[in-house]
TrEMBL record:
EC assignment: 1.1.3.15
Superkingdom: Eukaryota
Chain's gene name: LOC112281252
Cofactor(s) needed for function: FMN
GO MF entries: (S)-2-hydroxy-acid oxidase activity; FMN binding
Protein's name in the database: (S)-2-hydroxy-acid oxidase
Family, as annotated: Belongs to the FMN-dependent alpha-hydroxy acid dehydrogenase family.
Active site positions: 257
Annotated ranges, domain FMN hydroxy acid dehydrogenase: 1-362
InterPro entries linked: Aldolase_TIM, Alpha-hydoxy_acid_DH_FMN, FMN-dep_DH, FMN_HAD, FMN_hydac_DH_AS
Compartmental location: Peroxisome
Keywords: Flavoprotein, FMN, Oxidoreductase, Peroxisome
Top enzyme category: oxidoreductase
Amino acid sequence: MSLEVVNVDEYELLAKAKMSKMAFDYFARGSEDQVSLRENREAFSRIRLRPRILVDVSNIDVATSVMGFKISMPIMVAPTAHHKLAHPEGELATARAASAADTLMILSSSANCSMEEVAATGPGVRFFQLYVYKDRNITITLVRRAEQFGFKAIVLTVDTPRLGRREADIKNRFKLPSHLVYKNLEGLMNLEQMDKSSHSELASWADSHFDRSLNWKDVEWLQSITHLPVLVKGILTAEDASLALQAGVKGIIVSNHGARQLDHVPATISVLEEVVYAVRGRVPVFLDGGIRRGSDVFKALALGASGVFVGRPVPYALAVDGEAGATKVLQMLRDEFELTMALIGVRSVKEIRRQHVLTEQDSMKLALISKL
Ligand SMILES: Cc1cc2nc3c(=O)[nH]c(=O)nc-3n(C[C@H](O)[C@H](O)[C@H](O)COP(=O)(O)O)c2cc1C
Ligand SMILES: CC(C)CC(=O)C(=O)O
């Protein structure tokens, strides 16, 4: 008899039991000492909620709009690579689950399914995540395909000039099984070509092909070659948020890549407010990293995010129960978010306010003021 899964985290344990150690470690781990990985979760638990009572919450609307697209909730699917390591249907199952939930999905450029295959699953609001490779023609081809297959925006990942040190992948000698490929890159580059300096095939592959010279000028270049809006993913400071605005981006994703790149960076929820403050409403600011509860979604929105993206829980749930699992993850987060709203006394996403949360900094300020 299998017990019902009642929260998102339970999928992690179930996935661990189902997957090979190499695959599970690839999905689960962060870089080096896992400091930022722990912090991505712990920082959420240090934020307190401030409920208002006796508000009529008999009708709650969790729908929102992201960059002009109406979606059922401010909870979306982050780009994570290699979904076929989790389930044979890979990103096709993910795309169907996101569409069924009527929410947005970002397809990873390192997916095992192509943009064309994902588009063929049916309608859905989808963005395409891009890495810029040494050969710029590859980037141009990917952008053209994203336009052709109905992707609505390009999400440029800016925190990965080189791959972070993921020691589990090095120990496990991570290698993509031979039947899986970087489907979007097939025919565009020699996928076998990589320096062998790391025991992780992923690190060798990324370090051989990613363009380490990528800089703000390239963000302008990228926007010059497409009519699609460009978002940058991987901003952690107010300074870079300002530069992103100067470069003309249409959206910012506060992200530390699920703590897989530079270890010891802060939790994304801890830096969200400084980015929001720097942006001052000129473009939407989103967040990913450690979202596992509806209350996490609420906290991010109260601190100024226009929406959040969920990473690891999706491939974990795929591994356990395919498309149905991914659907359930999105449904559970939606239900928890709605319940959080009801218990805090807000009826729509627009009613969520900064005053609904108390951060550690708020508490410190209050303590100082009370001593004056
Ligand atoms: C297994 C895995 C693969 C990922 N692949 C990509 C990728 O291909 N492109 C990218 O921009 N981010 C990638 N990320 C980062 C996610 O988009 C996202 O920032 C992160 O997973 C969010 O944190 P969470 O897993 O705690 O929700 C990956 C993350 C994981 C865990
Ligand atoms: C192929 C990898 C570079 C995908 C990725 O971003 C990750 O594993 O975090």
